[in-house]
Amino acid sequence: MKVYEAIVRGLESVGVETAFGGNGENIASLAVALKHSRIRAIATRHEQAAAFMACGYAMFTDKLGVCYATVGPGAFNLVTGLGVAMSDSYPVLAITGYIRREWAGRGAVNDTSGLNRTPDSQAMFAATTKKSFIIENIDDTCDILDEAVNLAFEGRPGPVHIHVPQDLTDRGMEVSNYRDIRLRARPAEPDPTTVDEITRVLADALNNGERVVLLAGYGAVRSGAQETIRRFIERFQVPLITTLDGKGIVAESHPLCAGVFHESGHASAWKTFREADVVIAVGNSLSQHATFGLRDDLFEDKVLIQINIGASEIGKFYRPDHGLVADANLAMTAIASSLDAKVGAVQHVRVDNQDYEHRRLLPRPHAIHPGRLAQVIGRNLPPDAVLLADAGTHLAWLGYYVELEDGQNFRKCGQFGPMAAHTNGAIGTKLAEPHRTVVVGCGDGCYSMSGFELMTAVQNDIPVIWVIFNDDEYKLVKIYQLAEYQESALVDFQNPDFAAYARACGADGYSVDSPDEFERAFRAAISSGRPTVIDARISRWALPHYSTSPNGVLAGVFEEIQERVRGE
């Protein structure tokens, strides 16, 4: 069995059904092996998109995202997507070619050995994955694949990478010891002693009438803790706030859901957090925007209980009073079970719910208020839909104004946060769960960077819906420049007719500049089952709800003024 045949069969043995990549002479035999396998190979226009799609494929499933590329520049194009997988905790395997080892440093095309002024791909992939492997002996192929796949799922999930030297694909080179791959990774079990310690703290707080709040992130969603958390907050009358990526873990219409805790989140969530004595942070990394710029005093006078699957996430900036390294669902199940015996009936808690439907959004002539656009998306999302937000101001509008119900998911680009990650990643999300409607809210800047992968969706009949928030500028950059320097630069650009482009590619395309027009187009896109681009002209003269302080917008403005005065 040839080396790539062994890799492909090994991936089949762990249930891989789809792989994303480019092509090239160095990995030609991988393309042939995929052609004769049960794995559906999606050929992308650019390798970066392949890595983004692999992330999307793994986003809300227990499936392994797989991407591949040829040696040299093709392989390096995967790196940005692997950065996303690393920061956002996606189990992804990248497979790339490598030059003939006897040619290293001797002038071969695409040499990335790091010798004689060549790029060092082993260092590059080691820096952007949990581990990078190179197959030195062809009979180590299955052992390396087994280790890599299990490492991708172990603990906090993440990307891994395998180099395959071209000389291993020579005639006569055979894997003589093929074996199927066995997944051994299991969810991290909570330590019973730590669970008991946390339970006693929570029991004391609840029995003494102290205010407890649960802050849920993407890790709780990924672990499948939705029902566990709903039962927990109802049984113990604990208000729920979420990060943007934890949004919708419990229906946002639930009476105990206070909204999104974020710089561009809901005032109701900020208020609930301020009033809390104890914060249970479950499955989130307490990163920059969810902590109002890593605010030093955020947990001052509060007891912080942090639960995360990654040991390195516990206390990386905020030192918790109690930390538990465990799968979020297993941890919350154990805590709820232990706490139930220690706490009697709990008085019902009243929570101020989100006010986004009541904020006045003034109509704009020949343009749509982006908040209104988000509201229309939210009202029309099918019950099991996935809504992805790319990097930009539009994610703030979507996070604030879209109300998710049970079974729906939302995801923004995470800490690494490249533009276009979800513009492309949505194709992988749709292929992983074809029964779900997948919608991408993206800026015109994001779409311009990589919207050519629309052809990949058309060629493979993948019905993703792209909603372009079109205002001919990099709005987020512009806002920052104006706030910091009182002027802006290099943020304006001229867009093509995105709808006409979509139709030229064989997809459906709509241009809209009113909420009613958009709603008709959006409903048509959902019902059509076709790749669709909706070019929505939005107003430039609208800013999302935002504060640098959990104490509110005015407090944030006042603090910034004080900071500027001190700086002068």
Largest sheet: 6 strands, parallel
Helix content range = 25-40%
**Shape estimate:** globular
Radius of gyration (CA) equals: 25 Å
Please give the order of strands in the largest beta sheet.
2-1-3-4-6-5
Specify the number of helices.
21
Strand content: 15-25%
Mean pLDDT: 93
Strand tally, please? 18
Unreliable segments of 5+ consecutive residues: none
Q: Helix/strand/pairing class, anyone?
A: alpha/beta
- How far apart the termini lie comes to 70 Å
Q: Which helices and strands, and how do they pair?
A:
Blueprint: H1 3-13, E1 18-21, H2 28-35, E2 40-43, H3 47-58, E3 65-69, H4 73-76, H5 79-88, E4 92-98, H6 121-128, E5 131-134, H7 141-153, E6 159-165, H8 192-207, E7 212-216, H9 218-222, H10 226-236, E8 240-242, E9 257-260, H11 267-275, E10 278-282, E11 303-308, E12 322-325, H12 328-340, H13 370-380, E13 386-389, H14 393-401, E14 409-412, H15 421-432, E15 438-443, H16 444-450, H17 454-459, E16 465-470, H18 475-485, H19 498-505, E17 508-512, H20 515-528, E18 532-537, H21 553-567
Parallel strand pairs: 1-2, 1-3, 3-4, 4-6, 5-6, 7-8, 7-10, 8-9, 10-11, 11-12, 13-14, 13-15, 15-16, 16-18, 17-18
Helix pairs in contact: 1-7, 3-5, 3-15, 8-12, 10-12, 13-14, 13-20
